[in-house]
Task: structure prediction
Amino acid sequence: MIVDVSKKILIVGLGLLGGSYAKVLKRFGFHISAITLEQSSIDYALREGLIDEGSVSIDERLVKEADLVIFALYPHVFVEWIEKNQHLFKSGALITDVTGVKGSIVYKIQEMLREDVEFIAAHPMAGREVSGVENSTDKMFVGANYIVTPTEKNTPEAVSTCMELGRLLGFSNVTTLSPEEHDEMIGFLSQLTHCIAITLMTCNDKENMERFTGDSFRDLTRIARINDLMWSELFVANKPALVEQMDLFINKFNDLKRMLEQEDIEGMRQMMRHSTQRRALFDKK
Result:
């Protein structure tokens, strides 16, 4: 479906991700509309040519005309939106999302959704330390990963369309995982790393440290500048998987601490060599 530029795309939530989606998809000639809270976001997107039309309220026409609806909302807002407004979707519409957790929302939405509308979940593994549509960029997805999380309720056509969307957006690696596998992976690769950055940034409040730091500290704490409202919700929504990953980290950190206390240099070097080998696998190709 997505390759047909006559199809209309609606983006609900025109922030950093929603705006970046719009910026890329507009290049292909799709008709892009948006619904978001702030008029200033609509004005900016219209002025910059990211969208063709937009509204700060639920515009029934925009929803009813959309063939593909992309939701870039907080998880609980996404669920509430579907509960209240799904009657507006056209029959045969396909909806997808950008939500960072899956198990706690995918099945819930698929269970409540009309049978003539399909939800295929996806997670663009990309972002910046800034927010808002004015910071959107069509370069953000280059070299990044895009995960589609189908369930038994999804059709092969919907999965294919969602994966094609990821490729059109410019993601370098487009793949599929179950919602459960996704949440385990994200618990480690994304949420745990944010937990570590937050903890490192707040465990020592000694004054004027910023005057003496080097790039290693800046690099390690880049993601500590964080949207507390969004990330606290994501943490709770993925609590079991995240707690498990935090325990793994704490246990391994304690292993390193014990080696240091015992001056086990060979043990530390072995762990460092393992770290170096593993890190090479994560370099962007």
